[in-house]
Amino acid sequence: MFEKMMNNVNTKCPLVHNITNYVTVNDVANVVLACGASPIMADDIAEVEEITSICNSLNINIGTLNSRTIGSMIAAGKKANELNHPTVLDPVGIGASALRTGTAFELLDNIKFSVIRGNCSEIKNVYGKTAATKGVDVNVNDKITEDNYKDFANLAKSLSAKTGAIIAISGAIDIIADSKKAYAIRNGNALMSKITGTGCMLSGLIGAYIGANPDNILDATATAVCVMGLAGEIAYDKIIQQNAGTSSYRTFIIDAISNMNYDILKGGAKIESI
Questions:
Q1: pTM of the predicted model, to two decimals?
Q2: Which of 2, 5, 1, 3 is nearest to 211 (CA)?
């Protein structure tokens, strides 16, 4: 699985249109570049359809949502659907405010998404199982553990059947699922939650992988999640060796993604089919 997914990113160098949040936009662009793809960030209504038309995939992130860009997101998403380009929705903070929640469902009503990626609380809110949020972070009661990960896999399968999208739930154990099959991925490090935007970076990375592999969205998404998680592990080892901190950690994650290859991923991926 990994070899084909990675080769396609490297050979096709997909162009990813990101309508993402301004807190993490630079990191998202750098991660997309690091994996071998190319990013473009455009959110003005006057150009989003044109930009989307020249790209291979679209990544929509509502992290710093404002009224100006909602129409841009819908227009870009409809154009991507018209051209059969794969799309990602990152419903950051859904449930935290009426605007975020209403916008997420407006996007879901108007756009057919290929992948919906979020933390456990966000995905539960997308499903309609109202979950308390902690701003844009997962609620402590919604964390994935060895005791409940199969329950979250079943929830993801059910939501995939409901939406037609691959569901990617980020947590201590990541869950990637379509309506019939799920993966549990145990890569990553807890320190990743102490860096702003690792989830946003992952959504950009997924955009790159599905843009290069539109015929296998499930495995492309799983590969991207493994790459990000393993990069977090490699980067953590490096900051321990250098007695560094979280700013260095962010840089080392991007370094690890840029140096990732099939042999490294195959040797380090912790993925289970469930």
A1: 0.94
A2: 5
